[in-house]
Design brief:
This protein has 1 helix and 41 strands. The protein is mostly beta strands. The protein starts with a strand and ends in a 6-residue tail after the last strand.
């Protein structure tokens, strides 16, 4: 592995472009665009205020910068650096902004979710969508970019509207059997829309493109319900993470549960491999010490290193008892992600914050548990092969594949705490983000 130098960053905003050619990052009110392979500076743009959100257009030709405090969005062109666009929502304010799939329309959600405004960069026309719901995930596009679903709230009832993206015409509008709709998510094939209710009511509803209710799933009644959901890339499985520390897998034929995955505090199965991260004292050659010490020697002297050991079952994982009298208790399955080949599912149970669970979807069994020293901040699958990258707020990145597991220390001075990471579309590099800096990790071809 090779690592770039550290670059300044604000707000964990570092994004590879969809075509993989560029890397955009923010430093306060400046947008910096670099070449993804050489990290040479390509463009530098100055915005009106501190940037709070950035997003690439689908064709990688434009970048959107949202400044929510000002109610302003600025758009920059990579092909024509002199061209620029400013969208001011004025007194209506701004709480969210995103691209449409065609990369030529911008959807802005105003304060108090009064409306969504659709701005066209080509015709300068404006469309309005009323009554969008303030919820966890209220807007969803199909993967092919043809349709958009919007969660709405009117007269104290939940609705979903489906729009055609090329002309923003309403295709279907229907009410949902929910008390307080929490989110919507299209299957990757664009045929089924999943909608789930508030955590106080366990209910997952599956709708067809024409608004027909295909199925309704409910695992239990009174305790807290759905916490997270994820579709498999093939659209064959819907994984539902719940507050009862279980993941339930629905199949795409009958929409019934085919299995459920539990997350116990003690691993007893001998068929499960448990990789435990352990700290090791650094080994330093002390035959001819130099003074002052070299940079490499100094960093190895003062940085603790770690490695993975394979634990013998039974293994007791670190379990955190949730505080029952506080809102949003840290309990249940809060993170879910399928590998690109549909073969594996990675999960995190918030009660056991230091562990990543990797399930084999071909055998429907727990395959691997990674037990880390620190709390899991983020994990993401390689877009090209079954390989998982994990970060824990330390200066190390962790990679798992069916071949094994590795800990990689990011070289350099200072305390580089990786809070988030993102794969390049080719799967041969990663951008590692801390609160005030980022670097790029390049994987060797043999590793790829």
């Amino acid at each position: 592995m090779n690592f770039s130098e550290l670059f300044k960053l604000s707000g964990l905003m570092g994004r590879f472009s969809p075509d993989g050619k560029c890397l955009a990052s923010c430093v306060q009110h400046r947008l910096v665009v670099r070449d993804a392979s050489s990290l040479q500076l390509r463009q530098l743009y100055t915005c009106l205020d501190q940037i709070q959100y950035i997003e690439w257009s689908s064709d990688s030709l434009f970048i959107l910068c949202a400044m929510y405090k000002r109610g302003v969005v600025q758009v920059w062109s990579l092909e024509q650096p002199d061209w620029h666009c400013k969208i001011d929502e004025g007194s209506a304010g701004l709480v969210a902004s995103c691209w449409s799939p065609d990369g030529r329309h911008i959807l802005n959600t105003t304060e108090f979710h009064l409306r969504i405004t659709v701005w066209s960069l080509c015709t300068k026309s404006v469309s309005y969508i009323k009554y969008p719901k303030a919820c966890q995930q209220g807007v969803a596009f199909t993967k092919d970019g043809r349709y958009m679903a919007v969660a709405e709230r009117r007269d104290c009832k939940d609705f979903i509207s489906i729009f055609v993206c090329n002309n923003w015409q309403l295709l279907r509008h229907f009410d949902t059997e929910t008390q307080d709709l929490c989110g919507i998510e299209w299957a990757p094939n664009g045929c089924v829309l999943a909608a789930w209710d508030t955590c106080l009511e366990y209910k997952v509803l599956l709708y067809s493109l024409d608004g027909r209710l295909l199925s309704s799933y409910r695992a239990y009644e009174w305790p807290l319900g759905v916490k997270s959901i994820a579709w498999s890339p093939s659209s064959q499985f819907l994984a539902i993470g719940s507050f009862d520390e279980k993941v339930r897998i629905l199949n795409h034929v009958t929409w019934k549960k085919i299995t459920e995955f539990d997350h116990p505090a003690t691993i007893t199965s001998k068929k499960t491999i448990v990789y435990k991260e352990v700290e090791k004292s650094p080994t330093v050659e002390t035959e001819r010490p130099s003074f002052p010490p070299t940079r490499a020697l100094a960093s190895s002297l003062f940085s603790t290193q770690s490695k993975y050991d394979i634990s013998q079952v039974p293994v007791s994982l670190q379990y955190v008892k949730p505080v029952a009298d506080r809102a949003n208790p840290k309990v249940g399955v809060g993170m879910l992600a399928f590998s690109a080949d549909n073969c594996f599912l990675a999960t995190k149970n918030d009660n056991i914050p230091n562990a990543v669970w990797i399930w084999d979807m071909r055998k429907l069994k727990l395959s691997v548990v990674l037990e880390q020293l620190c709390t899991i901040q983020c994990f993401q699958w390689d877009p090209c092969q079954p390989r998982l990258a994990v970060c824990t707020g330390s200066s190390r990145v962790y990679l798992w594949s069916p071949a094994g597991c590795v800990v990689v220390q990011v070289p350099g001075e200072g305390d580089f705490q990786i809070m988030s990471l993102s794969w390049h579309s080719s799967g041969d590099s990663l951008v590692l983000l801390s609160k005030d800096s980022f670097c790029v990790c390049y994987l060797e071809r043999e590793e790829v």
